[in-house]
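Person: Show me a sequence?

Helper:
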Amino acid sequence: MDKLYYETNDLLQKVQIDLGRLEAAQNEQDAQIIVQYIYSDLKGLTENSRILDDYVSREPPARRQMARMKVDQLKSDVQRVELAVSGVHTKMTHKWRAASERDELLKQRFRPNDTALSIGDHELQMNDRLHTSHNHLDDLINQGSAVLDSLRSQHMNLRGVRRKILDVGQALGLSNSTLQVIDRRVREDWLIFVIGCIFCILFMYFFYRFWKG
């Protein structure tokens, strides 16, 4: 189990490095190659996580709690990377699509024997600016959705971690006062999670109202 755990960690780090390469890609062809590698590695991470779950269930009771916490943390990291990959891929797709549409419009408006664009090209420039603004708004909405998905994932992890911490504490023979302190800290983390959700929702709502005028 330990060998597979460390191999999965290494694969996760590779995906994070490839994600940085994707963001720095200068053209769509290079980006698509990197995306294929990333999604192939994500499949491997998902499969490894499933196998690790099976291994945890076979661990001796004395090691099972600690093994479960390690695997759950790894699965949480995988989920966050998947969300990040989805957000970056969506952003890059919008970027290349906008560039392709802009090139197509320029080809339609440009006259081969002219040295300058016609007066009507001012409308094209305005259209490009509006298109860019809409893309920025789409990116913001996608990022907000990714943040909310991440917060929801963290909420599920917090609930699971709280239960596991209390179970481990009882197994170690901690006093009730110590367990109460731990439980209070976990509840405070839950409150921070709720406040973060509310803040994100309000920000997206007011920004949308401001954008629409």
User: Anything to note?
Assistant: The domain at 1-86 is CATH 1.20.58.400 (Methane Monooxygenase Hydroxylase; Chain G, domain 1). The CA atoms of residues 22 and 30 lie 8 Å apart. Confidence is low (pLDDT under 50) at residues 113-117. The chain has two domains: 1-86, 132-213.
